[in-house]
Amino acid sequence: MGRTLRCLLVISVLTVSVGHSYKVHATEATKKALEEAKEKLEDTKDQLDDTKDQLSDKKEDITNLNHEKGKLETKLDDLNDQLSEVSENLSDLEDQIDTKLDEISNTEAELEIAIDTKDQQYASMKKRVQFIYEKQSFALYDMLMTTGSFADFLNQKDMIQALSSYDRKMLLEYQQTCEDIENKKVELNNEKNELDECKKKAEDEKSRVSDLVSQTSGSISKYKQNISTAEEEAKAIEDKAREYESQVESQNADVKALEAKLAEEIRLSKLAKASAWRNISEVAFAEGDRYLLANLIYCEAGGEPYEGKLAVGAVVINRVLSSVYPDSVVGVIYQSGQFSPVGSGRLALALANGSATESCYQAADAAMSGATNVGNCVYFRTPIPGLQGTQIGGHVFY
């Protein structure tokens, strides 16, 4: 048979009117769709669980980051208190040093005055002593001539000695004053040196604490950035989790709808088995039925042994014989949603190319003559847990 003639036969078969309106019954497509929907739902649930785990881990990361940031902030507060205390101490030391410098300056001024006073006293005393020794004869003579009595002379002499003793005493006092002021100056300088040492230590401590403050502030900034990044990532994960939750809800609805549809189809399947059946002799096959059935067998069981091919053909003929299904090969095969090769376009391609093999035609001939190796089964599919029936090759027939 040429390709053109085969195409015309297919077209003519598709246009045959069976004169009835049929409901969709339990099909391989529905079961496959339900299985795929359940698998998709489980995958989405797994993805949702993984996302929730990721979100939990990320939230734990954020908690840990906030905890570490809190510890650093407490440390920073302590460091700032230390820095404030060190700064105040340094300021006090600088004030004390300024005061000490003023005291040293005043002491140096006092020392200059004391030294000047001592030098003047020494110069004056030196002149008087020099005068007495140089003019001693004249002075004694003058004192003898001017005094009225010897007693007055002795008094004047005692006065000169007293004056000399006073000069010496004052000189010693001025010298002592200079020594005292000099000692005070040394003491003040020692105190200033001690203050300078304390100031240096305070400056070093301030520098150390300032460095720690800077490092801690930098660490806190990094933690804040890490927390911000983690919070953004957590938000993205939460959005993803909500998306998966929405998908789970939608897919649950799809699964329930498919389960309800499958339950109805199974109910109708049982009804078909309990309904009236025609004898194969009552079926009038149309031209092209053999070609159509052989190519469907090729699409559904082309890789199966002959027994598997015959079983697929028997399912089609069993439906033709049942009062629940269409009463023609064309009506059964093209009933909406019944055989996946019809919906996928594989059957149309096989029909166009004449893909059916000799064993497919042999199985079609046997089924159309009433042969069956699956009893009155009207369904088949790939095996799934809990499905009971007759397994031939890669299909379960029920």
Descriptive labels:
3 strands, mainly alpha, 398 residues, single chain
Proportion of residues in extended strands: under 5%
Helix-strand pattern: HHHHHHHHHHEEE
Number of strands: 3
Distance N to C terminus:
35 Å
User: Whole-number radius of gyration?
Assistant: 61 Å
Arrangement of strands in the largest sheet: 1-3-2
Structural class: mainly alpha
Give the % helix: over 70%
Multimeric organization: single chain
Main beta sheet, described?
A: 3 strands, antiparallel
- Uncertain segments of ≥5 residues (pLDDT<50)? 1-26
Q: DSSP helix count?
A: 10
Q: Provide mean pLDDT, rounded.
A: 84
Task: Describe the model.
By secondary structure, the chain is an all-alpha fold. Helices cover 79% and strands 2% of the residues. It contains 10 helices and 3 strands, in the order ααααααααααβββ. The protein has helices at 3-14, 28-134, 136-146, 150-274, 289-301, 306-321, 329-333, 340-344, 346-353, 358-368, and strands spanning 380-381, 390-392, 395-397. It has a 3-stranded antiparallel sheet. α2 packs antiparallel against α4 (150-274). It is rod-shaped and about 195 Å long. The two termini are 35 Å apart. 19% of the residues are buried.
